[in-house]
Design goal:
alpha/beta, 3'-5' DNA helicase activity, nucleotide-binding, ATP-dependent DNA helicase, ATP hydrolysis activity, binds adenosine-5'-triphosphate, ATP-dep_DNA_helicase_PcrA, six-stranded parallel β-sheet, binds magnesium ion, single chain
C-alpha cells in the first residue's frame, strides 16, 4: 500500500519532520537511543518516493546486521508497498557482494568467486605462515589474520603495509599479508574485509564503474553510522561521489543517522570520528538533533542516562519522553547464576500470566556462555526460547568436541566421536590417515578405535612415520585419561582430557576473540559437570553423558518464533526494541567484562554497550546480578556492576538488593554489604591474568617440568587460582594430586598436564 506524502509526516515531531523533508545537501541525524533515527530513515525513503523525488531503484540503504536490514526492509515495505523490492536495503557486506558479482571483470575476479568466512581465512593464513616456514609458536597465524583484517579495514595494501613496517615482526606480517592475498587470488576467493576494500578500490580505480553506480544510486542512506570503520566510510564516499570528480554526475543525496553513545564496534576498527567529523567531511551538511524518545518510559530512560553520563568527552544530550514514568526498573541480586536464571524464569512466568507474550521478552547478556544457565532453566520449566546471533549451547562446536572426547573416553568403540576429534586440535592426522584407518576397520569389522590400537601396534602397513607418531600420541591421550577416569569425577575427566589433548591450550594460544569465547563456553561445560555431581553424587561419566544427551536433545525442539523469549548478547541487540528486557549478569568482571576493567577506553565502550542494553526496553526493564558466578568450577565473588550502581535509587525497585550469601558473609565478617560495590575482586582478576600468562604453555610437560609436589605445598593453577595440595598419589608421569582451591573446591589433577605452578 502506497502512502501519500502528508500521511508520512503525520505524528512526527518538528525535528523528525525537518529530517524527513530535508533535501539538497547531505544530512546527519544524531540522536540518542529510541528517538526515531531508524524511523526517520525509513520515512525519508518513503517520502522521497511519494513526492517523486526518487524512484525506488535509485535508493540504497545500508545497515549493520542482517537482522536490522531485514527489519528495515519490512518497515519500508509497509510504507511503500511492493516497489520496495527494487531498492537495495542491505548490510555493507551484502551490498558489496552484489556490486562485485556484477563488476567481476573490472575487479578482476571470477564471477563465481567464493567468500571466505573468518575460519576459512584463518586456515588460509595458517597455510601461508607454514609456507613461510614460520614457527607457529613464535608467530601466531590468528594474530596475523587479525592484523591483516585491521589493514584491510584501513584500506592499507600489502605494499603499503611493507613500506610502513618498522620492526622485523611488522615486516613479516606485511609479507604474510602479500602471500595470503596471493593465495586468495589463486583460490578465486575474498575474505569478509576484502568485500569492502575491493569494492572501494573498484569504484576508485574505474571511473566508468563508479559512474554507473552514482547514476543509479541518487539516494544513499546509512543507519548506525557510528559503527562504520574507515573502509566503510570510504565506500560511502565513493558511492556518493563529489562535485568535482570525473564521474560527471552530481553527488548523491547522503543521509546518515547515528548515536556516538552507541558505538560498540571499536574492536573492528569502527571510529566515531566518522560521525563527529561529518560536518567537516561534507561542508554543506545539515545536522538534525533528535531529543524526544518514543521507545521507553521515563524511569528506563533515567536509568540509561545515568549509566552513560559517566563517560567523558561526549556531546551531552538529554533524552526525554512524554510517555510517563512507567514501572520502576526492577533490580535483583541473586546468589548465583542459577538463582538469577530462576528469578528470571519465575518473573517471565508471572508476566505471561498477566498477558505478556513470551515473544515480547528479551534477555541480554555480555558473553554467549552466559546463556547456558538460562537455557537450562527454560528447558526444565518449559518456557519457549530462542538464541539469536549465537548457537544454542549444546550445538556449539567446542561443546560438541568436548562431549565427543568424553564419549571417546567412556566408549573406546564410539567411532563417530573418535573421528570427530581425530584431528581436533590439529595433530597432523589428515584425511588420508583417517581414510586408511576407516578402510582397515571396515575390512576387519572392527571399530575405528580398535583400528587406531592396531596401527599403534604396527599392524597397519603403509602409514608414514609422522602419522604413526601422531597416532601413538592420540592413542596415549585416550588411554591415559581412560585410566585416570576410573576414579575421577566427570568434571575432573573433562579437565584432564581438555588439558591432555591440548584442546584448551590451542584455544588459549589464539588471538581470535571467538576462541576466547570458546574457552568461556568450556568453562561453562565444566560447571555443568560439577553441578551434575551435586544432583547425582554417585554418578559416573556414563550417567553424565546420558543426562547431557537428554538436555541437548530437548534443546533442539523447534518452536514458533513469535512466541519465544529471545536470548542474545548485547552486541546483537543493537537497533532492536522489546516491551520487556532483562539485562542479566550485571557484575564487575562480567559486564563490564574482566578484560576491559583496567583500560579506560575499553571501559568506555563497555559503558556504551550497557547503554545500548538498557535502551532496548520499552515498558519493563530488569537488571539482575549474581553474587557468585562459576567459571571452571571455581565460584567467584563478583561485586555489583558499576553500571548497576550508577542507576539512581529513585527509579529502581529492588526485589532483593543484597544476595543471601552476601548477607551471610557480611554478618560473619561484620562488613557492610555495601563494600561489595567497591572495585573488582582481586581473586577473579588474578585468575584471569594467570589464564593469559598460561597461553604459550603446551599441553604436555616433559618429565622435568612435572612439578614435584607434596601435601601442604601451595600451587597456582591457570584456571582455579591459588590452592593447597592435600595429597599426591602415583609417581612421575602418573602423579595425581588432590588440591584444595578454597570454598570447598577440591580438584584431582593429573600433574603431567595440569597448568599448575608450584609456589
Ligand atoms: P536506536 O538508537 O536504538 O537505533 P532509533 O533512534 O533508531 O533507536 P527507532 O527505532 O526509529 O529509534 O524508534 C524507536 C521507537 O519509537 C519505535 O518504536 C518507533 O516506531 C517509535 N517512534 C519514533 N518516532 C515516533 C513518533 N514521532 N511518534 C510515535 N512513535 C515514534
Ligand atoms: Mg535505530
Amino acid at each position: 500500500a502506497e502512502t501519500d506524502a502528508s500521511e508520512l509526516l503525520r505524528g512526527l515531531n518538528p525535528q523528525q519532520h525537518e529530517a524527513v523533508v530535508h533535501s539538497g545537501s547531505p544530512l546527519l541525524v544524531v540522536a540518542g537511543a529510541g528517538s526515531g533515527k531508524t524511523k526517520v530513515l525509513t520515512h525519508r525513503i518513503a517520502y522521497a518516493l511519494a513526492t517523486g523525488r526518487a524512484r525506488a531503484d535509485q535508493i540504497i540503504a545500508i545497515t549493520f546486521t542482517n537482522k536490522a536490514a531485514a527489519e528495515m526492509r519490512e518497515r519500508v515495505r509497509a510504507l511503500v508497498g511492493p516497489q520496495a523490492g527494487r531498492m537495495w536495503v542491505s548490510t555493507f557486506h551484502s551490498a558489496c557482494v552484489r556490486i562485485l558479482r556484477r563488476e567481476y571483470r573490472d575487479v578482476p575476479i571470477r564471477s563465481t568467486f567464493s567468500v571466505y568466512d573468518m575460519q576459512d581465512a584463518q586456515r588460509l593464513m595458517a597455510l601461508t605462515c607454514k609456507r613461510m616456514n614460520l614457527d607457529p609458536k613464535q608467530f601466531n597465524p590468528k594474530m596475523f589474520s587479525r592484523r591483516v583484517s585491521d589493514f584491510k579495514n584501513e584500506l592499507i595494501t600489502p605494499s603499503q603495509a611493507l613500506a610502513q613496517a618498522r620492526t622485523d615482526i611488522e615486516k613479516t606480517i606485511a609479507e604474510a599479508y602479500r602471500l595470503y592475498n596471493e593465495a586468495l587470488q589463486q583460490a578465486h576467493a575474498m575474505d569478509f574485509d576484502d568485500l569492502i576494500m575491493r569494492t572501494v578500490q573498484l569504484l576508485q580505480n574505474n571511473p566508468q564503474v563508479a559512474r554507473t553506480y552514482r547514476r543509479r544510486f541518487r539516494h544513499v542512506l546509512v543507519d548506525e553510522y557510528q559503527d562504520t570503520n574507515h573502509a566503510q566510510y570510504m565506500l560511502v564516499r565513493a558511492l556518493v561521489g563529489d562535485e568535482d570528480d570525473d564521474a560527471g554526475v552530481a553527488p548523491a543525496e547522503l543521509t546518515v543517522v547515528g548515536d556516538s553513545d552507541q558505538s560498540i564496534y571499536a574492536f573492528r576498527g569502527a571510529t566515531i570520528r566518522n560521525i563527529e567529523e561529518f560536518e567537516k567531511d561534507y561542508p554543506d551538511a545539515h545536522t538534525v538533533v533528535l531529543e524526544q524518545n518514543y521507545r521507553s518510559t521515563q524511569n528506563i530512560l533515567s536509568a540509561a542516562n545515568a549509566v552513560i553520563a559517566a563517560n567523558s568527552g561526549r556531546r551531552a544530550k538529554r533524552l526525554w519522553t512524554d510517555s510517563g514514568d512507567g514501572a520502576k526498573v526492577v533490580g535483583y541480586a541473586a546468589d548465583s547464576e542459577h538463582d538469577e536464571a530462576r528469578f528470571i524464569a519465575r518473573e517471565i512466568d508471572a508476566l505471561t500470566d498477566s498477558g505478556v507474550n513470551p515473544g515480547d521478552v528479551a534477555i541480554f547478556y555480555r558473553t554467549n556462555a552466559q546463556s547456558r544457565a538460562l537455557e537450562e532453566i527454560f528447558i526444565r520449566t518449559g518456557l519457549p526460547y530462542r538464541v539469536v546471533g549465537g548457537t544454542r549451547f549444546y550445538e556449539r562446536k567446542e561443546i560438541k568436541d568436548a562431549l565427543a572426547y568424553l564419549r571417546a573416553i567412556a566408549n573406546p568403540d564410539d567411532s563417530v566421536s573418535i573421528r570427530r576429534i581425530f584431528n581436533t586440535p590439529r595433530r597432523g592426522l589428515g584425511d588420508k590417515a583417517e581414510a586408511t584407518l576407516a578402510a582397515y576397520a571396515h575390512d576387519r569389522g572392527i571399530s575405528f578405535g580398535s583400528a587406531i590400537a592396531a596401527a599403534v601396534e604396527g599392524e597397519i602397513p603403509g602409514l608414514a612415520a609422522r602419522t604413526l607418531n601422531a597416532l601413538r600420541d592420540f592413542y596415549a591421550t585416550l588411554t591415559e585419561v581412560r585410566d585416570f577416569a576410573e576414579d575421577a569425577t566427570p568434571a575432573e575427566i573433562l579437565d584432564a582430557i581438555l588439558d591432555r589433548s591440548g584442546y584448551v591450550a590451542t584455544l588459549r594460544a589464539s588471538d581470535d576473540p571467538q576462541d576466547e569465547t570458546r574457552v568461556e563456553n568450556l568453562a561453562e561445560l565444566h560447571a555443568v559437570a560439577a553441578e551434575f555431581l551435586e544432583t547425582q553424587p554417585e554418578g559416573d561419566l556414563g550417567d553424565f553423558l546420558e543426562r547431557v544427551a537428554l538436555v541437548a536433545d530437548s534443546d533442539s525442539i523447534p518452536g514458533d518464533e513469535a512466541g519465544q523469549i529471545t536470548l542474545m548478547t548485547v552486541h546483537t541487540a543493537k537497533g532492536l526494541e522489546f516491551p520487556v528486557v532483562f539485562a542479566s549478569g550485571m557484575e564487575d568482571g562480567t559486564f563490564p567484562h574482566a578484560r576491559s576493567i583496567d583500560d579506560a577506553t575499553q571501559l568506555a565502550e563497555e559503558r556504551r554497550l550497557a547503554y545500548v542494553a538498557l535502551t532496548r526496553a520499552r515498558e519493563r526493564l530488569y537488571v539482575t546480578r549474581a553474587a557468585v558466578r562459576s567459571a571452571w568450577g571455581m565460584p567467584q565473588d563478583l561485586p555489583p556492576s558499576r553500571f548497576l550502581t550508577a542507576i539512581p535509587d529513585d527509579v529502581l525497585d529492588w526485589r532483593r538488593e543484597v544476595a543471601g550469601n552476601e548477607a551471610l558473609r557480611a554478618s560473619s565478617t561484620s562488613r557492610s554489604p555495601l563494600s561489595f560495590g567497591s572495585g573488582y575482586t582481586p581473586k577473579a582478576s588474578a585468575v584471569r591474568t594467570v589464564q593469559r600468562a598460561g597461553v604459550q604453555r603446551s599441553a604436555e610437560k616433559d618429565e622435568a617440568a612435572i612439578p614435584a609436589l607434596a601435601a601442604g605445598d601451595r600451587v597456582l593453577h591457570d584456571s582455579y587460582g591459588l590452592g593447597t595440595v592435600l595429597e599426591v598419589t602415583g609417581q612421575g608421569r602418573r602423579a595425581v594430586a588432590n588440591v584444595d582451591f578454597g570454598d570447598g573446591a577440591v580438584k584431582k589433577l593429573m600433574l603431567r598436564y595440569a597448568p599448575l605452578t608450584k609456589l
